[in-house]
Amino acid sequence: MTSATLKQHIEAAAAPVSQFWPMKGFVSHNPLQGLEHLPFDEAFREAANLFGAAGYLPLTEYRALHWTGRIDAASVQQALRRCGPADKGCISLLSRSLSAGQVQHLHLLHGIDALPPALFDWQVTQQKALERPRGGASVSAEIPALWQAALASLGLDDPRLGLPDAVPSRAQPSAEADLPFQRCLSDWLDETGDDGVVSAIDAQVIKWVSAFVDEGMAGWVMPSKQAGFFSAWRELSQYDSSGRLLGISAFKEKVRALPGDAETCIQRCMEALQVPEARWSDYLARTLAQLPGWTGLIRWRSENPDDPIQKHNPIDVSQYLAVRLFYEVQLVELAAQRRWGIAGTLPAISRRLARAESAGQGALLAAGANAGRVCRDGWRLFQLAQLLKLSADELGSLRQQDANTVLAWLDAFPPEDHQRVWLEAYEDSFRRRLLGKIAEHRAAEESRLERPLAQAAFCIDVRSEPFRRHFEATGPFETFGYAGFFGIPIDHRSFDSGESFPLCPVLLSPAKATLEVPRGGQDDALARYASGSRWQQLGEHLFHDLKHNPIAAFLLVDVLGLFFSVALIGKTLLRRPYAALARAARRLFRRPVATALEVDAGEAPAPYVTGLPIELSRGFSLEQQADFVEGGLRTIGLVENFGRFVVLCGHGSSTDNNPYAAALDCGACGGRHGDPNARAFAAMANKPAVRAELARRGLAVPDDTWFLPAKHDTTADTVAFYDLADLPGSHQQDLEILRRSFLQAGQKLALERCASLPGAPARMSPAQAHAHVGSRAVDWATTRPEWGLSGNAAFIIGRRAVTRGLDIGGRCFLHSYDASTDPEGAILEKIMTAPLVVGEWINMQYYTSATDPWKYGSGSKVIHNVVGGIGVMYGSQSDLATGLPLQTVNDGASHYHEPMRLLTIIEAEALVVAAIIARHAILQQFFHKGWLNLVVLDRHTGAFQRYNTDASWEAVAL
Amino acid sequence: MTGNWTDLALLLVPLVYLLSAGLAGLTGPRAGWRLVQGGSGLALALALVLDFAPAPVSGWFLHDPLNSIVLSLVAFVGLVVARFSTHYLEGDTGQDRFQRWLQLTLACVAVVVTTNHFLVLLLAWAGISLSMHRLLMFYPERKRAALAAHKKFLFARLAELCLAAAGCLLYLEHGTLYIDGMLAGYGAPGTTLGLREQLAALLIASAAMIKCAQFPMHGWLIQVVEAPTPVSALLHAGIINLGGYLLLLMAPLMVHAAPAKGLLLVVAGLTCVIAALITMTRVSIKVLLAWSTVAQMGLMLVECALGQYGLALLHLVAHSCYKAYCFLAAGGQVEAYLRQRLAPPAPAPRWAAPGFAVAVLALFGGLAVPGLLAADASLWLLFALMALVLVSERGSVLVRGSALRVLAVAGALTIAYALQKLLFTALAPAAAAPGLAATFWCMALFLGLLGAYWLLRCRPDSPLARRLYRNLYAGLYLDEWSTRITLAIWPAKLPLRATSKQVLTIKSLEATR
């Protein structure tokens, strides 16, 4: 195989594993991104095979949701029609008729499955299944007769009579068992025996990879990292006695004999395993899928060659594969030798397993032909008859041919097809409720305010919806939804920080840098700050170093250990006073310095820059600034009737002791706080030159309109304003009104949120609730400081009038859009190709974390162990946990996040929307492969139309 | 049986824990936590009051400053862990289990650190281990957790065996199972011990070392980080150091037992140095903390062996607070790391090597003047060492004006240390001067540590440093061997991997139900 084809194989094999962003900037994404080209259901089946992860809730849970009324009966019927089996047909039974739809409906609701023969006796003797009705407590005379009738109609004998039963002919032993699709030899050995080959390989690989990718946890760094992972591993592992301990002979010589190049090594290993070339792709795919977290991190590293760490310590998928396959070859060989004394190659193991399989088949099929059919067909018919409430006479009248037809209907709808029907029904129930609310609300639409005191733009984040609702209720305010980076992608560096961060969705990369600089005329404050921060840095860094220093660690514990009791008392017993005290102490050291955000293009060397150099050019030209402001205002439809304030409200969260802090911050700002973007937008929009330019472009902003940057703390529900030093005196009084309104809105929102936050006391006043959420923000013990974007289910693109005043439960992304100002759909196109895409990522991240919290999600926070500063493992060693923790999506026993695909509601012409979809491959993928649902709302008639995966439209009946 | 209110209070502490353990399971998680917190709070209050209580009269309890301090410490850690877990485990199934076993563990610890009866001590000690086992297996389906807990289970039984044997020997010697009775005769200096007593001391030292996870029985402590975070905090802050408590309790006997002290010095001394170096190579926070505990426990045992009981007690208490905090705050590591990334330690300054040379000379100087190290003059040495380490680590911060700061920080730390040391020396069993051989051995260990540190800071790329890294990163393979031996002696029953056939069976069972 040429090296180019091998590279292609490796690339294809790595594609299904999604990249894992290091934890410091958690980025929500679809873990199935590499499979998004497939239809939704197919992609999840593929992933279930590859990763062993569940893409749907278990059937029992969907059924429970139906019985509790969360999934309506009407939705179930509707979903069954849409994505159930296509069987039509009808048979008649004495006085009634029985249709395929009816049978399959019951099958969906109750699961009419065959009984494993081994359980037959247990059902009969323990469960008394042939004496009392299904799920019933008391014995019923009718049931035994029904059982006999079911057997009779199929021409079967009752196994309890002990009549001689024909033993089925044994399947012919196949000459060779074949390695299952997407399985490695190590998997195969583990599935057929108990050698723990995979876990032994995992342990070795994790050991080396974690040491290599560590970004500063270890005080003693792995040597030779500069040479790259494969070389470093080769150099160190040849002296590693673990090989010998595992039983690998001549380990050192084997490692030494490896080629110096990772790809050649992969080739050698695959040849050693004797895997035919046609199967390399799927073999490698499974090899990479065995630790998807670590592989994902390595993929991220190889896709980001400019990351400073990757630059110095390169690692990529090939290097990882080479190491992993080396262990695979050695340990498979070892296990095969130990178990059977044969070589660890695919042909040898296949031959051996084929023999074992044919020997085992007899045992599996030990149940006789009659007993087997009784358990499969008789049992199902018996169950169905009970569910249909048939009498024994009615069942008795069933002809054998009809009985087989009925069973064929059941066969046509196997349980693995039920989940997607349930999901559709689940979504349909939600859709009906939401659209019903919106339709009802339409009647009560208000007219626009005369001149609002303030307009406020919030992030599209689902947490903004309730906050906007409460804020609007406090006064003459209008609100808008816009991506939280306010359309300005920047690489931002805060005052006195040594590192810049890109503040924009990961879809984009910022072209320009911005800088937070101290305002003029405060030399004293700066001097005080510098001295204080020097002390603080000294303290912090010293403490860190001492902890990791073998000598100093002993001294440190003796000298400072007792003082930690103060922190223990403070943080657990006196949470809020301690937090206030700590804040005050910090302020004492670091006196606050008033700062401003520099947005103008500047060539002069930046003042006060420390740490890494700023690589992008700084600031924007006047033209660009006007573009940003105009673009933003036009996108959200704010082009006239400006209030005295336009508040730009970014958001961020404040939590303590939370490795997942970034997941609660602004996704549109790359998992960080959004205040710098708000400040940048306001700084531009308040500039007279920009206003003049806007006016020239036909967007007149009144002189007494002030753009005010702010940030909503989503954990504590507080709002902080920025750059108040620039605020004109004329606006001071209005600012107080604004402040009070935000306070009130925050309190009401806190009360609303407390209803669903576990551990929040019942019956509180809004002020008490506000205090409670404030204390959660500083609680180091809580695993659920807030719910984040949990619960997200819809993305509404349209005027605020569609939802204003409507309580939609904090489950919707709201993007402002006014179709009347956008006849061509140019603005809509931008919304659908950027914010909506991010919405899909977030939605799928939550969806998958809810359906399989341990594989797609990152399990329980309770056993998390931060590794290398980049991620978390479960316990002492495991795969890197990706996705969201259980506590983010789950409320104890129940799902807080209801896993369903994002329902996109667009207030626009269906034709315009369809034209946009036709232009973009990614949107076709989303809407035609079923990753998103779409409904358009006609502004004039209020009618909803649903977009189908075949690009057709269908009216939604409410 | 007669007693005064001190006896009653001492009896009440474990009873309060037991009562809340019994009631917690019955009421649902929320009320259960209130009960647990209330019980732990009450126990802590009692323990604090007991610090100032008159001596008990019944003879069932010990009431020295040692017991009071350790009891207060454990009650404090217990309350913190209970409060923390209330929020931390919110929504977890099995909170009632957690509450019950947490309180039971604490009840047993409270008995261990107050009882005067050897048999009670032994039983309660076993009780700690058994109830802790349930906490470590909080997620019983986790295979690695099961393996670690299995190892811990075996080592704990071994330690109890040692302790029981020691108890028998001491009973044969003194004819009493009351601890104060056993130890009464050892007050005089220059007492010589008989064979039985020497053997008992050796067994006690072994039990303490097993309990404190010293080489080669350390593996379980590293691997039990599979358990929920608060369990780790409790284990590392309130349970693991009971080995140290045992040695402090038996100090009057141990002082005279040269073989036992020698054993402690060798095993704990080596553990201390090697584990400290291994700690440096770890890349995940909880594992790093666990290795650090192994090293710190080693130091505590060495201090006991050297007769520095005040230091050992100070170390025991300080380490508990420190480690409890570190474990509970382990989730903040991503953020902490972000801050650190901006200021990596500078390469070692040029004068680091001469600096180390001076330190070594100073140490030998200390040796040359006998008794200097035990005296408070050692504080000056400590001061110099502290300043040296600070400066060598923080070359990057050591810009104009910071040199004085570093000295000031080192000075403040030294003073803080001196004061604490003074306090604890007054409270702990009387110190005994270490012998010359012991001092030399400790010096050698210290030099080894210093040498390795020098290698790391100044010659990180030398072949020697690489070889050292490799072996340290592998934990010297000690645990692999000990696991292998353990499993050979007593195979573990691990949670079975469900096969597809079993899953099918279970699913259909559920469906038909």
Automatic annotation (TrEMBL), chain A:
Record keywords, A-Z: Cell membrane, Membrane, Metal-binding, Transmembrane, Transport, Ubiquinone, Zinc
Annotated GO MF terms: zinc ion binding
Membrane-topology annotation of the record: Peripheral membrane protein
Coiled-coil annotated spans: none
Compartment list: Cell membrane
Primary localization: membrane
Function: Part of an energy-coupled inorganic carbon pump.
Subunit and partners: Forms a complex with DabB.
UniProt-recorded name of the protein: Probable inorganic carbon transporter subunit DabA
Source organism: Pseudohaliea rubra DSM 19751
Taxonomic classification: Bacteria, Pseudomonadati, Pseudomonadota, Gammaproteobacteria, Cellvibrionales
TrEMBL record, chain B:
Subcellular location: Cell membrane; Endomembrane system; Membrane
GO MF annotation list: NADH dehydrogenase (ubiquinone) activity; NADH dehydrogenase activity
Superkingdom of the source species: Bacteria
Domain NADH:quinone oxidoreductase/Mrp antiporter transmembrane: 116-388
Signal peptide (from-to): none
Recorded GO CC terms: endomembrane system; plasma membrane
UniProt-listed NCBIfam families: PRK08168.1
Gene Ontology biological process terms in this record: ATP synthesis coupled electron transport; electron transport coupled proton transport
Pfam families attached to this UniProt entry: Proton_antipo_M (PF00361), Proton_antipo_N (PF00662)
InterPro entries for the chain: ND/Mrp_TM (IPR001750), NU5C-like (IPR003945), Proton_antipo_N (IPR001516), Transporter_DabB (IPR046396)
Coiled-coil segments on the chain, per record: none
UniProt keywords, alphabetically: Cell membrane, Membrane, Transmembrane, Transmembrane helix, Transport
The keyword Protease belongs to this UniProt entry's keyword annotation: no
Species the sequence originates in: Pseudohaliea rubra DSM 19751
Domain NADH-Ubiquinone oxidoreductase (complex I) chain 5 N-terminal: 61-98
Summary of the function given for this chain in its UniProt record: Part of an energy-coupled inorganic carbon pump.
Family: Belongs to the inorganic carbon transporter (TC 9.A.2) DabB family.
Transmembrane portions of the chain: 40-62, 69-89, 101-132, 153-172, 199-221, 233-256, 262-280, 287-310, 351-373, 379-399, 406-432, 438-456
Gene that encodes the chain: dabB
Membrane topology annotation: Multi-pass membrane protein
Subunit structure: Forms a complex with DabA.
Name of the protein described by the UniProt record: Probable inorganic carbon transporter subunit DabB
Keyword DNA repair: no
